[in-house]
Amino acid sequence: xxxxxxxxxxxxxxxxxxxxxxxxxxxxxxxxxxxxxxxxxxxxxxxxxxxxxxxxxxxxxxxxxxxxxxxxxxxxxxxxxxxxxxxxxxxxxxxxxxxxxxxxxxxxxxxxxxxxxxxxxxxxxxxxxxxxxxxxxxxxxxxxxxxxxxxxx
Length: 153
Hints:
The protein contains four helices and eight strands. It is an alpha+beta fold. It has one domain: Aminopeptidase (3-Layer(aba) Sandwich), CATH 3.40.630. It is globular. GO terms for molecular function: acyltransferase activity, transferring groups other than amino-acyl groups. Pfam families: Acetyltransf_1 (PF00583). Keywords: Transferase. InterPro entries: Acyl_CoA_acyltransferase (IPR016181), GNAT_dom (IPR000182).
C-alpha cells in the first residue's frame, strides 16, 4: 500500500483518508480490490489490541473491527464492498475471530445494506461529540438492550 500511495500521490496529489489508516491508526491488515493497476476498493481490519474507530477503545480478544472501507467513485454500485466483506469475514473466521463489528453512519445506505446482507445487525446508534480537542462517545440503544457497537456479526 505504501508503494502504491507514493506512486498515486505523484500522479494527481489526492487520496482519501482511508488510504492512510496504516500510518495514522497503526493498522496492518487491508483488503483491496483492483482493476488492473487501479485501486477500486479498500477496507481495513483492526485486530485484537489495535485501536477501534472510537476514541480510547481497543479491539477486545476474539474480535475484529471492519473499518475505513472506501470504494473509489467510478467503482461504486458494483457490490465491491460486499465481495470484500465476505472475504474478510471468511478469513477472520478461519483465524478464530468470534465476533466482528463495525461503526457505520446510518446515512451510509450502501454500506449498511452490504453489512446487513452478510449477517450484521444494527445494535446501537453511536454519536461522537467533538469539542475543542476532546471527543466523547455516546451510545443510544434503539432496543433498550444496553451499550454495544453499531453493527455486529
